[in-house]
Specification:
This protein has 187 residues and is of the alpha/beta class. It contains six helices and seven strands, in the order αβαββαβαβαβαβ. It has a single domain, classed as Rossmann fold (3-Layer(aba) Sandwich). The longest helix is centred in the middle third of the chain and has 14 residues.
Length: 187
């Protein structure tokens, strides 16, 4: 993955697009091992597309968050540009045991509202201790075409993609996943 990072930096790659099935193509494994490695280690946004995905335009995008990540304009601009080009609706989903946001969370929510301004954006809260399950339920119940997440250490994305046991990999994504990397990169 170090080589992928070097190429992404040297060529100023904006986005890596790849399929999600590996050589094994096992049904119970959502992502192939190469996709896991790229999503986890490459410091560039990655769009992972399931092998059986056929819809071309994301009309309804889900952006789950805990509002604890200090988002960067560059990563939210990618989401905004993508959503704008398809006139997509963006649903921001806060999954928590509590409705009450801290001051830091309120500031991060305000930053999202200011930054994703060209699109219809909706803010929702799901009461749950099981983040991956709440996200999957939201996808299933709201005709979501794309899942967008920011990959940071101990983020929702990492918790969903890199669980401690294979049993936790029950998030059977049938839609594209855009993983934005919350890290510094030369522009």
């Amino acid at each position: 993955m170090e080589e992928a990072n070097l190429i992404a930096d040297a060529k100023n790659i904006d986005l890596i697009v790849m399929g999600t099935k590996g050589k094994s193509a096992e049904r119970h494994i959502v992502f192939g091992s190469q996709t896991f490695q790229v999503l986890k280690y490459v410091q560039c946004p990655v769009l992972a597309i399931p092998s059986n995905y056929t819809n071309g335009q994301p009309k309804h995008i889900l952006f789950p968050t805990d509002y604890l990540i200090p988002y960067k304009r560059r990563e939210l601009k990618l989401l905004c540009d993508l959503a704008s080009s398809y006139r997509s609706i963006v649903d921001v989903l806060y999954v928590s045991k509590s409705d009450k946001l801290s001051i830091r969370q309120e500031d991060n929510q305000a930053f999202i509202k200011e930054t994703i301004c060209k699109n219809e954006i909706n803010f929702y809260t799901a009461q749950s201790k099981k983040v991956a399950e709440a996200i999957q339920n939201y996808i299933n119940n709201n005709a979501i075409d794309m899942l967008v997440m920011v990959n940071t250490q101990h983020s929702f994305l990492e918790d969903m993609l890199f669980p401690s046991t294979i049993d936790k990999v029950s998030l059977d994504l049938k839609i594209p996943l855009l993983a934005m990397q919350n890290s510094t990169r030369s522009i």
